[in-house]
Amino acid sequence: MDGEDDGRGPDDGGTNADGPTGAETPRETYDRIAEHFASTREYPWPEVSSFLDDHAADSARGLDLGCGNGRHAEAMAEDVAAVVGFDASRGLLDQAAERAAERGFDVELVRGDAAELPFRDDAFDIAVYVATLHHLRTREDRVRSLSELARVLRPEGRAVVSAWSTEHDRFEETEGFDTTVDWTLPGGERVPRFYHIYAPDEFESDLGESDLRVREAFVSSGNCYAVVSPA
C-alpha cells in the first residue's frame, strides 16, 4: 500500500483535521480502491531507485513490504534474484500479479499483516518499506512492524523505510498526528484512508525503539526516509 500522483505526499483528497474517524482498515480501504489506485502508480520513487542502485546488486532475496501494484518490486527484480511482494490488500496483490504478467518480471506475492511477517529470520538481503508504515493505527504496531523488518533481514542486509511527514508543506502541525486522507474514485466517491503523519524526530524515535539500526535518515518530498539494517 502506498500513499495519488506519485504517492510521495498527500494527494488531492481532503485531509480530516478532526482525526481518523470513518476510515476502514487499510486492507478494506485498498481492496475498495485497488484498481484505480494502481492505475496512478507507474514509476518507482527516485529515492527507492537510488537505494536500489546503491544496495541491490548481487542480492539473492528482496522484500517489497507494502508492495501495492508492484512497481518497486519490478525495479528490485532488475538486480535481485528472487523478489517477494507483501501487502495486506488482496486487490492490490491482484494488480501486482497483472503488472508482473504484463511486464515479464518474477515476484512471489504474499498477503498478510506488516506487524506479523510470515517469513523466517534472516530471509532477505534487501527490503523496501515505503508509504506503508503510516497506515498502521497504533505506535505499538508500527514499532512491532519495524522490528519484524529487522528480524527478516540478514545481519548485513539493508532496507529503506519511509512515511509521510509533518515536513510536507500541506501540514501546519509540527508534532506527529493521526488523520484521514480521502481517495477520490471515478464518479466522485471519496474513500477515507488512515494515516499517522510523522514528525521527523518521532520517526527516528520509533526506529530507535525497534530492532533496527539507522544508517542514514533524511527528509525528501515531504517524507521521512531512513536506510536501516538490523541492530
From TrEMBL:
State the superkingdom. Answer: Archaea
Pfam families linked: Methyltransf_11
Q: Does the keyword S-adenosyl-L-methionine apply?
A: no
Compositionally biased region (Basic and acidic residues): 1-11
The protein's Enzyme Commission number: 2.1.1.-
Q: Name one GO biological process term.
A: tRNA modification
Record keywords: Cell cycle included? no
Supply one GO molecular-function term.
tRNA methyltransferase activity
Methyltransferase type domain location, by residue? 63-160
Region of interest: Disordered:
1-30
Report the enzyme's class at the first EC level: transferase
- Name the Gene3D superfamilies on file: Vaccinia Virus protein VP39 (3.40.50.150)
InterPro entries noted in UniProt: AlkB_tRNA_MeTrf/Diox (IPR051422), Methyltransf_11 (IPR013216), SAM-dependent_MTases_sf (IPR029063)
> Which keywords does this Swiss-Prot/TrEMBL entry list?
Methyltransferase, Transferase
* PANTHER family in the record: ALKYLATED DNA REPAIR PROTEIN ALKB HOMOLOG 8 (PTHR13069)
UniProt name for this protein = Class I SAM-dependent methyltransferase
